[in-house]
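This protein record is not my work; I was only asked to verify it. Where you disagree with what is written, explain briefly why. This is what I was given:
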Amino acid sequence: MPYCRMCGSGTVVVHISYAKLYLCQKCFLEFYVKRVKRTVEEFKMFREDDVVGVAVSGGKDSAALLHSLHNAFPKLELKALHLNLGIPEYSEHCESKVKTLTKILDIELQTYDIRKELGLTIEDFKKTKFKRKICSVCGTIKRHIFEEMAKRAQVRVLATGHNLDDVTSVMLNTFLNGQWTQLTRIKPILPPLTEGMAYKVKPLIRSPENENLLYCLYGELPIRTIGCPNSDTAGIKKYAKMLEKFSEEDPNFKHLLLNRFLELIPLMEEKFPKPTITRCRICNFPSSNEVCAYCKRISLVKGYQTRNNIVK
């Protein structure tokens, strides 16, 4: 049985093929935390005297993010932000995992329940024209509400659990579809669109998805064990499968692709200027239109409820 390449004595449990490392459980956890710390420092994502909000869903990526940031920056003030989407069984399950994790870490948790706050749930969109695009709607709703939660929590930085696989798949999809302006927004640190809003950062941008899961398993972190019943990411999965095929030949492929995209983004920002940003007349959040996508979707559900005398 081979021994760990870092400590020389521990039994190997993980093979990091792109780094040619064989690690024991203890050294893998340390390796993971050090990489998160290096990523934060490389892109200057926040200062140690900042208050950082962490979007925590109950899944492996956000759990690994919160726990590793807590270990990498022990003096950093973290606030966990959780959104309950009102999906039967699933949302309650996720929230319970988040509560357990934040209790273990002794981190403040703020929860936004859309049923209580807005009088609707993600399930209500199944009765609208978006019934076959629930994931798209969900993404729009989550982005807006986490911005709102960051303002409520008074955090300067909002960290999300987007991992290496997420980012490279979306980057490839965006690139091949010629969505140049959107491509410029998929980067490690995204400045706020207007004053008073939070910076968005991705500390796991160099962390593969499978290593996030291993970090949770070896760290014995509470994470959800059921999948979202509405999940449908066929488009992105197609590119994820392509990347996996390339990675079989070259384990470093995703890291190389990420680095090339990061080099490309400044060129795209020069060639394709940012769209003019105004304020949504309903919520007053930044928008490229008179009414933002979030408010349009919320109004659609509210209109359906009014027409059918539905009260939540």
About this structure: Residues 26-275 form a domain with the Rossmann fold fold (CATH 3.40.50.620). The chain is about 50% helix and 10% strand. Residues 134-153 form the longest helix (20 residues). The beta strands are 14-16, 21-23, 51-55, 77-84, 108-113, 157-159, 189-190, 199-201, 278-279, 286-287.
